[in-house]
Design brief:
The structure holds two protein chains of two kinds. Chain A is of the alpha/beta class. Chain A is about 50% helix and about 15% strand. Classes of the chains: A alpha/beta, B alpha+beta. The interface of A and B includes residues 4, 25 and 80 of A.
């Protein structure tokens, strides 16, 4: 009987051991933020702020690892198994793809945080060389012969898709909604693009460091950061007459975070982006904050410009993706000279 | 090219200025028309130079674009290369994996060619050449967390599915395994076949289960200091190579804890210490009752006809190993308590009597083994890796190891008293002494030379006063193993 008791004890201890172990391992946590190309500096800055906040709130240390690349590529990596606790991508379509293809988060993920889970916005502007030697003022100037335009590849870059849609939306408005004219306009624009980088940061490198091109179509934050880094003696930002409101979303990757036991800290990581301190970091890194008080403080940094949204102009990301960027879509047709 | 042109551009206005300044001093000698012609000529040259500069700048831009395109292409190629499958062929086997290792497949195998010669004992016909194990081993991972193993065996002239299981490793503290695999119980059985120090396992195998179907939770915790395994298995008779199907509803609960508390310690005297305890409990009915075998695979104990498993079975085994540099020690004590039913005719006092008895018996055994690598390599639970592979031309001879062990199994004396076994044909205990020399030619080839002698109590008839012992069994066995 005693031997049976010993055996039962062994089985019991063996059964309880796995339950005890994860708790011990949860003292210090690590999460992975899979993001798009130009957010390196933003999240380096924010991670430090959040880690301090988390330590004060819970007494625990958290390490946040980052991964950056073209938004579409990053989404595919998560679908293929990159263990992201949170994703902070360039466009909602890429996070939708993670929800649909891998089922790692619910389909209504965008409803879980304020402002459709977009804690900051940006827009698309032009970065030109100092003195604006080619006289670039608006979208029309980009399709003139002899103008060299730098923009990344919309097949791999979320930023590039915003650029494409901003140009299309402008052309559509200018031509009274004439799709053929818009297509012709955008085709002309891409004929002026000598190099298609895979991501927004690569295009910045092409324009800023390699000295190629007359104008870079860029995220506003990327353009302002280049201006800060290199000074007005090298570049200047040109805001077009109309542009698109870019809303990069963020989301918890539920199943990964649950498996890692990081749901609480990962959720807090995203929620704190909406706090006054988080919004301050956002504005400091040239993204447009949502919080009115912080937006007011940084008003001079972000000129007022008429903007259309993806929903207004294209019926949302799914429709835009299918029409323009899916295999055989309008971008492919333009590239093939169709 | 560009600097001289720029210099020329700077010098030209100076030249023009100089020409104009000098003009008054030579005015008398030059006409106004000549000066105008000169200025026009110089202006034309400047225009030409400016055009050339623009052309050069355009060319330079084109060169930069080409350079950048090459750079972008190189980045794309690099990214593509990162996505290309990784193919490996080495002493570890042959494998294909995705760059992130989330998908991988490995082709391995083990072949053991044996020769066994009885030098004494009952058996005069068992000396033979044979293939002990012939196992292609296919292992891999899908979706990062789903490991699998498929291992058929063509050895001993039979085709048997040895292992086939899926191991879900998504939760590192509770890996979940389903299929057919080694019952997580006996230390000697759990050591990989390729790493065994002897060609045959010890006598203690007569008291422990081999492979079985079931489901298991398992993991290594606390930086590999503690391993737990908890399983629900069909329940198989002891020491049966492969049992397919389950002829009763009773299942075995199996639990094993094995601690290596100093595995991460810097004290090398302690790092190789491991102690554990395992137990199984279940109900078995109508199972075929296993027979007990010697090193030479000869049966030294079997139950009488009409004996079946018929109730609870409880096994437990404290177990340990210790490794320090070239020295290895392993051992275990095993107990097997099982309820049996005898439903048949037995002879009592020379008279055949029909009986239907239920009784519980406890068989016990132990096993202790020592090994030492003469060539200085470290030894461990995962075997010996020779420092220098066998290469006579290079003057290296692989690794050499000497091994010795003792093992014993004692059958519950009640089985004879109650007629469950016949003392004239079955021994009541067997004690095996074995010695061996192992030659590791390289990481994949091992040649083993064993001598095993087994002593028995009883099993060879009886007189009115005593029971005669079965003759000792002496076996010489050699095994050449290729494993990858």
């Amino acid at each position: 009987m005693n031997r049976r008791f010993v055996a039962a004890l062994i089985v019991l201890v063996a059964a309880l051991a796995p339950a005890a172990a994860p708790r011990a391992a949860r003292a210090d946590q690590t999460i992975l933020n899979v993001s798009y190309d130009p957010t390196r500096e933003l999240y380096e800055d924010y991670n430090a702020v959040f880690a301090k906040h988390w330590k004060q709130r819970t007494g625990k240390d958290v390490t946040i690892n980052q991964s950056h690349g073209g938004s579409g590529k990053q989404a595919r990596a998560v679908i293929d198994g990159l263990d992201a606790d949170v994703v902070t991508l360039a466009l909602a379509y890429d996070i939708d793809a993670i929800a649909e293809k891998a089922g790692l988060l619910p389909h209504d993920w965008q409803k879980r945080l304020p402002d459709n889970s977009c804690p900051y916005t940006s827009t698309i502007v032009f970065l030109v060389r100092a003195g604006n030697p080619k006289g670039i003022r608006d979208w029309d100037d980009l399709v003139k012969p002899g103008i060299s335009v730098i923009t990344p590849n919309p097949k791999t870059s979320g930023g590039a898709r915003w650029n494409f849609l901003a140009a299309w939306g402008y052309a559509l408005r200018r031509n009274g909604g004439n799709e053929a004219a818009a297509r012709d306009f955008v085709a002309k624009l891409y004929r002026n693009v000598p190099v298609l980088d895979s991501g927004a940061r690569g295009s910045t490198t092409t324009f800023v460091e390699r000295g190629i091109g007359d104008v870079l179509i860029a995220w506003e934050n990327e353009a302002l950061m280049s201006l800060k880094a290199f000074g007005a003696s090298k570049f200047q930002v040109v805001t077009p007459s109309v542009t698109i409101l870019a809303e990069p979303p963020v989301a918890l990757v539920d199943r990964v975070a649950s498996r890692h036991g990081t749901t609480e800290v990962a959720t807090a990581y995203l929620e704190y982006l909406y706090s006054a301190e988080g919004q301050e970091v956002i504005a400091r890194n040239f993204y447009r904050p949502r919080l009115a008080s912080v937006a007011q403080k940084y008003k001079s940094q972000f000129p007022s410009v008429p903007m259309f949204t993806i929903g207004e102009a294209f019926g949302g990301w799914s429709a835009a993706q299918k029409k323009f960027f899916a295999d055989g879509g309008i971008f492919d047709q333009i590239q093939q000279g169709g | 090219m560009r600097k001289p042109i720029l210099s020329g551009l700077f010098l030209l206005p100076i030249a023009v200025f100089g020409a104009v300044q000098l003009a008054p001093s030579t005015a008398a000698a030059q006409s106004l028309n000549t000066r105008d012609d000169e200025v026009a000529r110089l202006r034309s040259e400047i225009r030409q130079l400016e055009q050339r500069l623009e052309t050069l700048e355009a060319i330079e831009q084109k060169v930069r674009i080409i350079d950048r395109k090459l750079e972008v292409q190189a980045e794309a190629d690099q990214a593509k290369a990162k996505e290309a499958p990784i193919i490996k062929a080495s002493s570890q086997g042959f494998s294909i994996s995705s760059p992130n290792n989330d998908y991988r497949i490995k082709f391995g195998g083990i072949i053991q060619g044996n020769a066994r010669f009885f030098t004494s004992g009952d058996d005069k016909t068992g000396s033979t050449f044979y293939l002990n194990r012939v196992r292609p081993i296919l292992t891999g991972t899908l979706w990062k967390y789903y490991d699998f193993n498929i291992t058929p065996d063509f050895g001993l002239g039979k085709v048997v599915l040895q292992d086939a299981y899926i191991d879900d490793t998504m939760f590192p503290y509770a890996n979940f395994q389903v299929g057919k695999y080694k019952t997580p119980y006996d230390l000697e059985r759990l050591q990989s076949d390729r790493d065994l120090e002897f060609s045959q396992r010890s006598e203690i195998q007569n008291l422990v289960p081999n492979r079985d179907y079931g489901a298991e939770l398992h993991a290594s915790l606390f930086d590999n200091r503690l391993t737990y395994q908890i399983a629900l298995m069909n329940g198989v008779p002891n020491n049966t190579a492969s049992v397919e199907g389950d002829n009763n509803d009773g299942k075995d609960f199996v639990g094993r804890l094995f601690a290596t508390p100093f595995v991460n310690s810097e004290n090398e005297w302690l790092t190789g210490l491991g102690v554990g305890f395992a137990a199984t409990y279940g109900h078995e009915f109508n199972n075929t009752i296993s027979t007990y075998k010697t090193y030479g695979q000869q049966t030294w104990f079997s139950f009488n006809k009409g004996v079946t498993a018929s109730g609870a079975r409880f096994r437990y085994e404290p177990q340990a190993y210790y490794y320090y540099k070239s020295l290895g020690l392993m051992g275990a004590f095993a107990s097997d308590e099982h309820e049996l039913n005898l439903n048949g005719t037995v002879t009592q006092g020379g008279t055949p009597v029909f009986v239907n008895n239920y009784s519980t018996f406890t068989d016990t055994g132990y096993w202790a083994q020592a090994s030492y690598v003469l060539t200085g390599e470290n030894v461990g639970f995962k075997g010996v890796v020779p420092r220098h592979p066998f290469d006579p031309a290079g003057g290296t001879w692989g690794a050499w190891e000497v091994v010795g062990r003792i093992s014993n199994v004692a059958v519950d004396s009640g089985v004879f008293k109650l007629g469950f076994a016949n003392p004239n044909t079955s021994a009541s205990s067997a004690t095996e002494y074995a010695f061996g020399i192992n030659w590791y030619l390289n990481q994949n080839i091992k040649w083993q030379f064993d001598y095993a002698r087994t002593f028995f109590n009883g099993g060879a008839g009886s007189s009115k006063k005593s029971v005669f012992d079965r003759p000792d069994e002496s076996v010489l066995e050699t095994q050449l193993q290729l494993a990858f």
